[in-house]
Write a structure and sequence with these properties.
Blueprint: E1 4-5, H1 16-22, H2 41-57, E2 66-69, H3 72-86, E3 92-96, H4 101-112, E4 116-120, H5 130-136, E5 141-145, H6 159-169, E6 174-178, E7 199-203, E8 214-218, H7 233-236, H8 244-259, H9 261-282, E9 286-288, E10 299-304, H10 309-318, E11 321-322, H11 338-342, H12 347-350, E12 353-357, H13 364-382, E13 388-389, E14 394-395
Parallel strand pairs: 1-11, 3-4, 3-5, 5-6, 6-7
Antiparallel strand pairs: 2-8, 7-8, 9-10, 10-12, 13-14
């Protein structure tokens, strides 16, 4: 039985083209790119070409503004801590309650250290109120960190507008965005729409590159300090020998992802919308989280009243369907998603969340399998639920 993989917001399969370009740097061109001998030049040149490729993919800017990391988590930590260290005189941060944990937990730690942090709320659709954001901005605000798109719900945020407003309030405000889920699904252009963004983070394994590689864009002139010290690599901005094959793979994946944005916005969105419609028709007491908001074209987040998400995932796995209940970074926790809590999802549904996230490798057959399988699983699990009246086919609370 074919495995139906629909957990692409957690991680993706490595694209064959990506694996192909990586291979030489595991074998013949395995050298340390910092070495002085002639043989190592190919590795150093490969890193520079990767920088140039990523620059083209994200709007065309000086490639030296890209530095390579081990993950989006490192990029986010580096962006936030590096900004704080470079600007000790400013103590106010704005973020949201629905950020990825690699931003949210850093902001909580900074709050414990005495910084003033505003965690902006969202509404039931996961949307941020512009008025709340404008009211939170202050002349002494140091940092705004708001993601481009949420990893659990797919809800998108108007970072272009938010960053413009921040700079109009005070040009010294540093604007960071976590673009990990957006690249390849949305157009990300740091020279036009996002020209007011100072720091942008992303990783490889969300766009068909390997796990273990990420990048951080640091706009020239941004007051920021390196987070990892110890060597001269990345022009002294990130110590540690560069992971050449993975960097090469990341650049190729970015190239492929940008070329696939139109497919994501049309074919993949059509698959997602068809699945959403079919499940809404077949499963009573089902909510689509963020359905009225602008969402990523690949993401469908469901709250299914009366049952546990873990039970749904277990049953789906028995049928060869791989999905998730939220962020992969908190998948071992029984606590409800902080994103869904911020969205005020009802208690009868918050534990019954299911995230389905597609990629360009999903097809009609995958959608048909889910449609044929999930409603029956839900019906069977609800027979065991204390919150469900099976005779009346509705909640019993």
């Amino acid at each position: 039985m074919k495995t139906v993989y629909v957990d692409n917001n957690a991680t993706t399969a490595i694209a064959p083209e990506v694996l192909e370009v990586m291979q030489p740097y595991f074998t013949t061109d395995y050298f340390n790119p910092s070495a002085m001998y002639e043989a190592a030049k190919s590795s150093a040149e490969a890193i520079q070409r990767a920088r140039e490729t990523i620059s083209r993919c994200l709007g065309g800017f000086d490639p030296e503004q890209i530095l390579f990391t081990a993950s989006a988590t490192e990029s986010n930590n580096s962006a936030l801590f590096g900004t704080i260290q470079a600007n000790p005189e400013r103590r106010h941060i704005i973020t949201t309650a629905i950020e990825h944990s690699s931003v949210l937990e850093v902001c909580k730690e900074l709050q414990r250290r005495g910084l003033d942090v505003d965690f902006l709320p969202v509404n039931r659709q996961g949307q941020l109120a512009l008025d709340d954001y404008v009211k939170a901005l202050r002349r002494d605000t140091l940092l705004v960190s708001i993601m481009l798109a949420n990893n659990e719900t797919g809800v998108c945020y108007p970072v272009a507008e938010l960053s413009r407003i921040a700079k109009e309030t005070n040009p010294k405000i540093v604007v960071h965005t976590d673009a990990t889920q957006a690249i390849g699904k949305l157009t990300v252009d740091l020279q036009s729409d996002l020209k007011h963004v100072d720091l942008l983070s992303f990783s490889g394994h969300k766009l068909h590159a390997p796990k273990g590689v990420g990048a951080l864009f640091v706009r020239r002139g941004t007051r920021w300090r390196p987070f990892i010290l110890g060597g001269h690599q990345e022009q002294g901005r990130r110590a540690g020998t560069e992971n050449v094959p993975y960097i090469v793979g990341l650049a190729k994946a970015c190239e492929l992802a940008v070329a696939s944005v139109a497919d994501e916005q049309t074919r993949v969105r059509s698959l997602r919308d068809r699945l959403q419609k079919a499940l809404e028709e077949r499963i009573p007491a089902l909510e689509v989280n963020g359905r009225e908001a602008v969402r990523l074209p690949n993401t469908l987040n469901l709250s299914i009243h009366g049952i546990e998400g873990e039970a749904i995932l277990y049953e789906l796995s028995r049928y060869g369907i791989c999905a998730s209940s939220g962020s992969a970074c908190s998948s071992d926790s029984l606590e409800p998603s902080h994103v869904l809590k911020a969205m005020a999802v009802p208690f009868t549904a918050i534990h019954g969340s299911l995230r389905i996230s597609l990629s360009r490798y999903n097809d009609e057959e995958d959608i048909e399998r889910i449609i044929a399988t999930l409603p029956g699983i839900v019906a069977n699990l609800r027979k065991l639920s204390p919150y469900w009246d099976d005779n009346r086919n509705c909640l019993d609370i």
